[in-house]
Amino acid sequence: MRCNLIKALHILRIWIMSVGNHLTPKPLKRAGSPLPEDQPVCKVLVADSENVKVKKRMYALLMMYSGWGYFGMQRSPTHPTIEGELIKALISCGFLANNNPEEFRKVWFQRASKTDKSVSAIGQVCSMLVTPRRRRNQTESEFSSTRSHPDSW
110 with 67: CB under 8 angstroms? Predict the structure, then answer.
């Protein structure tokens, strides 16, 4: 499909050049005619495994939490907050490198609403742009150790 589109664009470019240049008209290539050998239709790029850029995806996170013991949703450097706990979870799962504000801006974190001190939420929605991580060899015990347990709060 992609090669056909590239071929059609190439033919269209040749046609536009031939129509626009009245002094030296160029022959119009038809869809079935072969392209010149020196111009490849499709270029296949092979990337090194180290330089592969993985596309980030926007994820929505629907969460429910008890705000007791927290100073609201929005992060604060001096008080424990829900966003602070979320950042810790993202770091432990490998989605963020550290608790740096610049690193947090890279994920385009957005929240639908904010809560005040000791206010709980049943349907809080947040979104973030992160790289999907799939661990095929991760066992259930390794997965459960990365999750936060309510007794540890």
Answer: no
Give catalytic residue positions: 116
Tell me the average confidence (pLDDT) per consecutive run of 10 residues in the chain, 153 residues long. Answer: 72 66 54 55 48 72 82 82 83 76 76 75 80 54 50 46
Copy the structure tokens of residue 127: 């979104």
DSSP for 110-148, written as a single string: EES----BT--EEEEEEEEEE-----TT--HHHHHHHSP
Q: Name the CA dihedral angle for 139, 145, 149, 153, rounded to a multiple of 10 degrees.
A: -170
Give, in order, the Cα–Cα distances in Å from 59 to each of 7, 82, 144: 36, 18, 21
**Residue 50, helix vs strand vs coil:** coil
Fold exhibited by the domain 57-147:
Alpha-Beta Plaits (3.30.70)
Cα R_g (the chain), whole angstroms: 27
Q: Give CA–CA dist 151/37, Å, rounded.
A: 69
Torsion of CA 128, 131, 134, 139, to 10 degrees: -60
